[in-house]
Task: structure prediction
Amino acid sequence: MILIIGGAYCGKENFAREYFSVHPVDCTPEEALNAPAILNLHEILWTILELGESTDAYIEQLIMQNPEAVILCDEIGMGVVPVDCLERLWREATGRACYELAKNAEKVIRVVCGIPVFLKD
Result:
């Protein structure tokens, strides 16, 4: 598994294409369980929260079912804490998800202004 994190529109997708020769796509939660390259994991987690399901259980399933995936996720935990309860839960769930994915990933890369910073290699 490869986890690529960074701010919105900072070059994560271009980096994944160029460095790993994959084409990340937006997926439903179900599609992501088998997709080779997953775009916008944070949006998948939002969908799961809206459905009232466990994001922790989903991430555990993703790790087990799709251990070779390249996963792209926006960093949403920096800045002002949202007032809205669901947005706060989403922010926390995304942070926990990235933590678990990073623990299990072969590589973790943060992309800043199009520049990759290898955190785990």
Summary: The chain has a mean pLDDT of 96. The CA atoms of residues 36 and 69 lie 5 Å apart. Residues 2-120 form a domain with the Rossmann fold fold (CATH 3.40.50.300). The chain has one domain: 2-120.
